[in-house]
Amino acid sequence: MEYKRKDPEAQGRKETPTKPFASSRPGASALNENALSRHIVECAIEVHRTLGGPGLLESVYEEALVWELQQRGLEVQRQASLPIPYKGHTLASPLRIDLIVGGLVIVECKATGQYNTIFEAQTLTYLRLTGLKLGLVINFGERVVKDGIHRVVNGL
Q1: Has residue 8 been placed in a domain?
Q2: In angstroms, rounded to a whole number, what is the distance separating the alpha carbons of residues 4 and 129?
Q3: Pairing relation of β-strands 105-110 and 134-139?
Q4: Contact at 8 Å (CB) between 18 and 104?
Q5: How many domains, in total, are found in the chain?
Q6: 17 CB-side CA count, 13 A
Q7: Boundaries of domain holding 55
Q8: Global model pTM greater than 0.85
Q9: Beta bridge mates, 136
Q10: pLDDT tens across 47-96, in order?
Q11: Which of 79, 150, 154, 156 is nearest to 117 (CA)?
């Protein structure tokens, strides 16, 4: 699935931006970034608890998190492709965003014992390129996953 960039010329306009990944499920579209982030954090804690904590691959936690979010009726895009424009040319290697929840929140899943702030910089870049405002970096490699949740904002 490819994520469409927002029109940079439309940034100055007062139009409501389109939400290509907005949920079509009843009630889910009414959630804002903060409400979605609460669901995401609750689901991440459940995944970490159920899978027994750290020690698994990132892809395992990601898949389980998608399942938990979908059980709550939330729309989730997994491994969304984001083209990279460069001087009028689109680069051959698009970025891969782990999750986009409700068309509003980017989630980057990690499973490392050593957290690096580059993860937040990466998420902020994704937010800027997509025009979204909130991202969460969730490091399932922490003994207590709530200690591994980092909120990244782009003008919220």
Answers
A1: no
A2: 10
A3: parallel
A4: no
A5: 1
A6: 19
A7: 31-153
A8: no
A9: 107, 151
A10: 999 999 999 999 999 999 999 999 999 999 999 999 998 999 999 999 99
A11: 150
